[in-house]
Design goal:
EVH1_PP4R3; elongated; two-stranded antiparallel sheet; three-stranded antiparallel β-sheet
């Protein structure tokens, strides 16, 4: 069993080669076939060799000669049943004589075969073998000269049906220079219209072919003309195909596609032509109208390039880059002509989509060549976004998407250039971020003392700011277009918070950006208030204590809670979004923010009972206070216990010292005087050793107490009032009578030395 594999998304990437399916090879690089009624497929190859290899496999499965361009057409059961009801001669699809009197018969025949893939194939072969198309077009000219409307209506049906046969070999004839205008003429006479359309008049008189740079290649010029006219037939003349006809024109789409590929390839190979285009595009002496045409040419040129195979598209954009497309765009986007700038934006979008890294590499080199940040390419893009005159900001939305692609770290991870992310983000925040945020900062500037408008909310007076500045209510933009622009900027800044962490954090702190953004919570445009809230939500979502301290210190929950209270009992998106923010803080148990909210705003929020969010925050707050109280109590209890143990330990030292003295006295009395010197020497040695040994607890274990104990930390040292006489050395023998090993002696002796120092204080 053999399969055909494809990367196409229109089918399941794999098609079984059936011995009963009719396959046809077209144009040396195309194999077409049908797998179901009204469902045609095509397999396109970049090179002829690949097409020939697959064609041989197909012919091998079906037992056919590979030199044939079409395999034999087997007839399935449904076809046999239909054919049994028809005269035997109809199996051969014999064409009626091409005469005026038989146009209706020809139209009925063409229409009848459209439902059968096999009969469509047979009719196409018949039309090609007899040169039938050109004969029909001759009849069209005759009917038009005679104003034979009935014949013209039949010719409309015939030509439309022939197009729906979906055969590239027929298209080659119909769209040739000497036939295409007659084909367009036939399609003007739709029987459903009272008066025919004037498509030929539009194509020959209204639509003008403009050569921005003279094209000397006649083949290229002919291919451009043909592609435009065929595209016009598909988009304008032919009616929108129904569900059952949607696959009838797939080959027509492929025909246009391959034409565009040829055009791009031929232009790309003509380096002299492209060099001349770039030279005139950037020449200050070029007239505005001429420059507009050049930019529109490049725009369409780049649009055609999307039809290229990936490797060919890469070569195309690399050619443009080598010719200086980005410096040219930098000049064009700085011009006053709105149409030129709009076309330049489209070209820029193709370049960003192709290779963001290529664009980033170019813009990072610009500061070395220009002293003014305003002329940098990215800043020109930002300014064009800000100054978009479209009330719906369609261009601004497009540019915002391009900026997000450029600053997205996800496409900066190329292993060949690991420093790209760091270098570009540093460049962007140094040279471009101030341009992006300028409208936001300008529209949220606070008015100075003596001029501000007071909004008095006694339950929300901030304890963190001077009283005279807590009541400033900055003026919010009420203009809808300005609000839309600020929403776009906030969307981009929110993206930065999510993906840039370090750079955006520094920028927010240095510019106090969150405070300025939250001014927009007062906007009458709810969508803008939601954008400001979303920005804060993303910051809190990071659960970064650095951000949390910034929010607490600036009392930045106040505008959010004001907005919640001002919203009243309205159950809307703003209400839900604010509630979700506090719910997140509660669920994630962000302790610093919970304490701040409860300490400063709970009285204003405790009346909100339709959700349990704020009572939950209060509960979390109380739990944390209880936990801290229990921890402090245990800490103090442990410290007192430690002091008691030390007191007992030092008291035991005194008892042992007195007992030792009594034993030594008895030994001196009972032993002869000759042993006196020995005992004296022994006492001196024991005294030296005991200086370096710890004391014993009543359980015969050794207690290690350090100078930074809990008691010392609290300033309570139970040994500090001991008399100096109580600091007598302890016995080196444990309760079991065994001598301590050397390691224990050294360690315990050192510790005991610390204790003696504490005891003697």
């Amino acid at each position: 069993m053999i399969y055909i594999y494809s990367s196409s998304d229109t089918w399941n990437n794999m098609s079984k080669i059936s011995p009963n399916t009719a396959y046809q090879k077209q144009q040396d690089t195309l194999i077409v076939w049908s797998e179901a009624e009204n469902y045609d497929l095509a397999l396109s190859f970049q090179e002829k060799a690949g097409c020939d290899e697959i064609w041989e496999k197909i012919c091998q499965v079906q037992g056919k000669d590979p030199s044939l361009e079409i395999t034999q057409d087997p007839i399935d059961e449904s076809e046999e049943e239909r054919f049994e009801e028809m005269p035997e001669t109809s199996h051969l699809v014999e064409l009626p004589a091409c005469e005026l009197a038989r146009l209706e018969e020809i139209a009925d025949l063409v229409t009848s075969v459209l439902s059968s893939p096999i009969r469509r194939e047979k009719l196409a072969l018949a039309l090609m073998s007899e040169g039938y198309i050109k004969k029909l077009l001759q009849l069209f000219r005759t009917c038009e000269d005679q104003d034979n409307r009935e014949g013209l209506h039949h010719l409309y049906e015939i030509v439309r049906g022939v197009l729906f046969l979906n055969k590239a070999t027929l298209f080659e004839v119909m769209f040739s220079d000497d036939c295409i205008m007659d084909v367009v003429g036939c399609l003007e006479y739709d029987p459903a219209l009272v008066q025919p359309k004037r498509h030929r008049e539009f194509l020959t008189k209204t639509a003008k072919f403009k050569e921005v740079i003279p094209i000397t290649d006649s083949e290229l010029r002919q291919k451009i003309h043909q592609t435009y006219r065929v595209q016009y037939i598909q988009d304008i003349i032919l009616p929108t195909p129904s569900v059952f006809e949607e696959n009838f024109l797939s080959t027509l789409t492929s025909f246009i596609f391959f034409n565009k590929v040829e055009i791009v390839s031929m232009l790309q190979e003509d380096e002299k032509f492209l060099t001349e285009v770039f030279a005139q595009l950037t020449d200050e002496a070029t007239e505005e109208g001429k420059r507009r045409e050049l930019v529109n040419f490049f725009k369409e040129f780049c649009a055609f390039s999307q039809t290229l195979q990936p490797q060919n598209r890469d070569a195309f954009f690399k050619t443009l880059a080598n010719l200086g497309i980005l410096p040219a765009l930098e000049i064009i986007m700085g011009m006053d002509d709105l149409q030129v700038r709009a076309a330049a934006t489209d070209i820029f979008s193709y370049l960003v989509e192709f290779s963001p890294s290529m664009v980033r590499e170019f813009v990072m080199q610009e500061p070395q060549q220009a002293d003014d940040d305003d002329v940098l390419l990215i800043n020109l893009v930002i300014k064009q976004m800000i100054c978009d005159s479209d009330p719906e900001l369609g261009g601004a939305v497009q540019l915002m998407g391009l900026l997000r692609t450029l600053i997205d770290p996800e496409n900066m991870l190329a292993p060949t250039n690991k420093t790209e992310k760091t270098e570009f983000l540093s460049f962007f925040y140094k040279y471009c971020m101030h341009v992006l945020t300028a409208p936001l900062l300008a529209n949220t500037a606070e008015e100075r003392k003596g001029e501000f408008y007071v909004t008095f909310r006694p339950h929300l007076i901030s304890p963190y700011l001077p009283e005279e500045t807590t009541k400033v209510n900055p003026v919010c933009p009420d203009n809808f277009q300005t609000a839309q622009l600020l929403a776009l900027i906030l969307e981009l800044l929110t993206f930065c918070v999510e993906h840039h962490t370090y750079h955006i954090k520094n920028y927010i702190m240095n510019k106090d950006l969150l405070r300025r953004v939250l001014v927009l919570m007062n906007s009458k445009h709810t969508f803008l208030a939601l954008c400001a809230l979303r920005f804060m939500r993303r910051i809190i979502g990071l659960k970064d204590e650095y951000y949390n301290r910034y929010i607490i210190k600036g009392n930045l929950f106040e505008p959010v809670i004001n907005a919640l209270l001002d919203n009243g009992t309205r159950y809307n998106l703003l209400n839900s979004a604010i509630i979700e923010l506090f719910e997140f803080i509660k669920v994630e148990d962000i302790k610093s923010l919970i304490a701040h909210i409860v300490d400063n705003f709970y009285k204003a929020l405790e009346s909100i009972e339709y959700v349990q969010t704020f009572k939950g925050l209060k509960g979390r707050y109380e739990q944390e206070k209880d936990r801290q109280s229990r921890g402090l109590s245990r800490y103090r209890r442990d410290a007192r216990s430690l002091e008691d143990d030390e007191e007992m330990w030092f008291n035991e030292d005194e008892d042992e010292d007195e007992a030792e003295a009594a034993v030594e006295k008895r030994v001196d009395e009972e032993f002869p005087e000759t042993y006196g010197k020995y005992m004296g020497t022994k006492k001196v040695k024991e005294s030296e050793d005991k200086e370096n040994l710890p004391k014993r607890t009543p359980t015969a274990s050794f207690k290690f107490t350090f100078s930074h104990s809990a008691g010392a930390a609290n300033g309570n040292n139970s040994a500090s009032n001991k008399p100096a006489s109580s600091a007598s050395p302890a016995s080196p023998i444990g309760s079991s009578g065994k001598t301590l090993n050397d390691k224990q002696s050294i360690t315990m002796g050192t510790t005991h030395g610390l204790l003696r120092s504490i005891r003697g204080m």
